[in-house]
C-alpha cells in the first residue's frame, strides 16, 4: 500500500522524519512506537503517527484501566446498552429509555475554565443525543482547590459560568451536582459533567457502521485548529510549562449545538441513519475509527470535503482537531439529499466526506495524495493494554478522638456549617437554569433531583456522589460508599435506583500507589454495584490528574439514575409540618 | 381563542409555553418558525424565552430583525395581544414595541430562582385574574433582565400604569430600575416580562401562580 | 475593505460590567482607576467600491442591528490600507 | 489619563458571536460582509504620572484581569490629549 503514495513534491508534513523526539512529543513510549511500526509493517508517517497517538492515548484507549473496568457488573434486565457506546441506555418501562453518561473535562477547564467547562457540557450532551435521546437533565461534579488558593476563585467563577453558559443556552436544565474544595485539587481541578436523556427503546442509535459503500457524512460546525493534541494533553501529567504552552483552546458554541440537536432529532425521526457518533476528543479520527471498527468495515476519507474554518489546514490538523459541535454519520445510500436539506435548513454544515469499504483499513486522502493508510484493528481494539503494577493502600491511621469530649457541640456545629465543604451551594446552582423544559419536580437543593418523563406520571431520580476523603483513607470502602450514597440519595426521593455511570478521576497510574487506589476503588464500586443490583452502563476515566508530582485524592464520581413510577409518591427532604414524628433508619 | 408561539433558532421555552397555552385555550397553538413571513391570524402571539441566536451581540437583537417580527409588529398594531417572556421581552424592546432595554444583571451572574412579584396593574388582559397589588411567586431565569430606561420614560411608564409587574422591593434579582419585572405598551395589549409564568402553572412544579396569566388571557380575549 | 466598529454605552447609561471591572481592579490592588466602561468592538470585511459606500453600508448595519441606539453610540473606522 | 483597551480573539479561535452576526447581516440583506469578529472595548481613566507608567499598569491589568490571554490579544491606546 505504501507504494501508492504520491511522490513528494513540496514540503509536506508527512515528509518529516519520525525521530524519537517526535514520538515522545506525541506521548508515545518507545515500545509503543515499536508496536505501531510492527502493526503498520513500515514506519508510519506524521499523519499516521498522530492518529495512533490519539487513539492510543490513555483518554481514548483506556490502556491502564481497561483490565479493571472489565470486572465491573454491567448487566441486568434493566440494561439495554452497557458501556462501550456513546452513552448507556436503560429501560424505564412503556417503551421509554433513559440514556446517560458522565465525562471529565478536567485539564481543559484548568487552562481555560469557562470554555473548558462549557465544552465539557457540550460534549456530554452530544454523547447522549447521538444515541437518539433528547437531553432532559444535566448534572455536574466539581472539585476545586483550597478556597484560599489564589487561583481557586477565578477557576470556580469560570467553571460555573461556563457550565451555565452552555447548559442554560441550549435549554437543558442543570438539576444538581456536587462541589468540594480541597488543596489536593489546587493544581488540578475536576470538572465532571453528566447528561441524562430520554429516548424510545425502538429508536436508539448506535455507532457501529455497516454497509459497504455507504456514505460517511460530516455535520455541524466547521473544523478549525482547536484543541489539537487535546486528547494527548488529557493523558499527560501537567507541569508548570504546559500551562505556558497554551494549546489552542476549544471554544463552545451552544447556539450551534442547539441547532445540531434539533437537526439530528429531525433526521432521526426518519430511518436514514445507519450509525452516528459525536466528534469528541480526537474528533474526526476517533469517530471514524470507532465507527468503522465497531462495524467491522473499512473507511476512506477525503479531507478536501471537510468544511474548514481556517485556511491551509493540513490533513494532520483536520484529523486531530477537536472543534466542537460536530458529528459523523453513516447514512443509507441515497438518503443524502434529505439529510442535507435538514441540516442546511438549520444553518449547519453538511458534507459527504467518505464512504465505507471492506478493507478493514482507514485510508485518508488530501490534496491529491494519500496521506494515511492504516489497519483499523490495532488503532481501536488493538491499543495497548497495561497491567500496571500496584501496591495496596495502607490502612489509614486511626483518628485520635480523645479530645472530642472537650469540644463544645454548638461551636463545633457552627464551624461545620460554615466550612466550605458543607456551606450552601445555592450561589452556584442559582446560576444554572434548573427549570427549563418544565419537568423539574425537584431541582438542586435536595438529595437527588427528580425530572418527570415528559407527558407521563413517571420521573427519573438523579444523583452524583463520591467522598474522595473516604477513598483516600480506604479505597475499597470509599468505592462502595460512593455507590451506596448515590443509591441512598435516589431511594430517599421514593425512586428505585436502576443503574450508574461514573467518572473515575485519579492521579498517575504509572505510580503503583495510585494504581493501587484505582484498583481498590473499583473493587469496592464493583462489589457495591453487584450487591445493590445497580450496574454500570457507561463511564469515563481520567488519569494523570497530577501537578508537579502531587496527585489528587482518588475521586471516582458516581452518577446514579433511578425511576419513580408515580410522581405523586415522590417525597422531598424538608420537614414540612410541625408535630410530625422524626425517624432515624438504618444503623 | 387562537394562540401562536414564535420559534426562533435558540428559543428553548417554546414548548413549555405552548403546553400552558394549550391547557388554557383548549387548542394547540400555532408554532411559527422565525423564517416564515406568514403569521396565521391569532388572538395572542407569544415570544418565548430562550437564547434566540445564542443571545449573541445583544439578547433579542437578531431575533428582532428576523422576517416574522415585521408581521408581529403589524399584528400588534392591528390589536393582537403580544406576550414576550424573558428573551421575548428582550426582543420586544429591541424591535421597539416596548421602550427601554434589558441590561446585564447587576451581579453579572445568570440567576434562576423564584421571585416574589407584585401585580401593579390588573387591568391588562394578561393580569385580570390577579388582585391589584397581589404578591405572587413566579421564577426568573436570565442573565440580562436588568431593566433600564431614562427617567422620563420611567416616569411615563409609572404615570400611565404601564409597570404591570414589579419585584418585591427586597427581592429584585437583577438590579432593574424601579424593580420593574414587566411592562406594557400604551394599549395594554403588548406585555413584556422577565419572569416565566409558564414555569409555575402546575402544582407538581411548585405552584400555579403563573397559570392565571394564561387563563386570564383567555377570559379577557374571548 | 476592513472596518472596525466601536460600540460604546451612551453617557448616563448604567454599565454593570464596567463597574464590576473597576471593583475587581481595585481588589487586585490597582489604585486610581476610574470611569471604567465596557463596549464592543466589531471587525469586519466588506465588499465596497469606495470608502464612502462602505461607511454608508456600515452605518446602516449599525442602525439596524449592530448597535442599540437607545443606549449605545457607534463609531466606524475604515482601514484604508487594505 | 484616559485609555482604551481593545481585546480581540486570537487568530484561529472560534468566534461564535461573529459567525452569528455575519449570518444575521446576510439575512438582513447586507451582502459581501465577511470575517466578522467581535471583541471588547474597555475605556478607563487612570492616575499615572507618565504615559509609560500608565501603559505599564494597564498591561498588567490586561494580563491579570481584562483579557483572557489564553484566547485573546489586547491592544492599549492612551489618549494623551486629556
Ligand atoms: N455543581 C453543582 N451544580 C448543581 N447543583 C449542585 C452543585 N453542587 C451542589 N449542588 C446541589 O446542592 C445541593 C447540596 O449539595 P451537597 O452539599 O453536595 O449535597 P449532599 O452532601 O446532600 O449530597 C444538592 O442538591 C446538589 O444537587
Sequence-ordered SSE layout with sheet pairings:
The complex is a heterotetramer, with one copy of chain A (587 residues), one copy of chain B (222 residues) and two copies of chain C (82 residues).
Chain A: H1 20-25, H2 30-40, H3 46-55, H4 58-61, H5 66-69, E1 79-81, E2 88-91, E3 96-104, H6 106-111, H7 113-129, E4 134-144, H8 152-170, E5 174-181, E6 190-200, E7 215-220, H9 230-233, H10 240-245, H11 254-268, E8 273-278, H12 283-295, E9 298-302, H13 315-320, E10 326-331, H14 336-345, E11 349-357, E12 361-366, E13 369-375, H15 376-379, H16 409-418, H17 426-429, E14 440-442, E15 449-452, E16 459-465, H18 468-473, H19 475-491, E17 496-505, H20 512-532, E18 536-542, E19 546-547, E20 550-551, E21 555-564
Parallel strand pairs in A: 4-5, 9-12, 17-18
Antiparallel strand pairs in A: 1-2, 2-3, 3-6, 4-6, 7-10, 7-11, 8-10, 9-11, 12-13, 14-15, 15-16, 16-21, 17-21, 19-20
Helix pairs in contact in A: 7-8, 7-11, 8-11, 11-14, 19-20
Chain B: E1 3-7, H1 14-25, E2 30-33, E3 44-47, H2 61-64, H3 67-77, E4 81-85, H4 87-94, E5 101-103, E6 111-119, E7 135-142, E8 146-148, H5 151-159, E9 163-167, E10 180-184, E11 190-193, H6 211-221
Parallel strand pairs in B: 1-2, 1-3, 3-4, 4-11
Antiparallel strand pairs in B: 5-8, 6-7, 6-9, 9-10, 10-11
Chain C: E1 2-9, H1 16-27, E2 33-46, H2 51-66, E3 72-79
Antiparallel strand pairs in C: 1-2, 1-3
The complex binds adenosine-5'-diphosphate.
Adenosine-5'-diphosphate binds at residues 140, 142, 174, 176-179, 425, 428-429, 432, 444-446 of chain A.
Written description of the protein model:
The complex is a heterotetramer, with one copy of chain A (587 residues), one copy of chain B (222 residues) and two copies of chain C (82 residues). In chain A, 33% of the residues lie in helices and 23% in strands. Chain A has 587 residues and is α+β, with helices and mostly antiparallel strands. Chain A is globular and about 80 Å long. Mean pLDDT of chain A is 91; it is low at 1-9 and 240-247. Chain B has 222 residues and is of the alpha/beta class. Chain B contains six helices and eleven strands. Chain B has a nine-stranded mixed sheet with strand order 2-1-3-4-11-10-9-6-7, with helices on both faces. Chain B has a two-stranded antiparallel ribbon with strand order 5-8. The longest helix of chain B is centred in the N-terminal third of the chain and has 12 residues, at 14-25. Chain C has helices at residues 16-27, 51-66, and strands at 2-9, 33-46, 72-79. Chain C has a three-stranded antiparallel sheet. Chain C is elongated and about 50 Å long. The C-D interface holds C 6-8, 18, 21-22, 24-25, 28, 30-48, 57, 60-61, 64-66 and D 6-8, 18, 21-22, 24-25, 28, 30-48, 57, 60-61, 64-66.
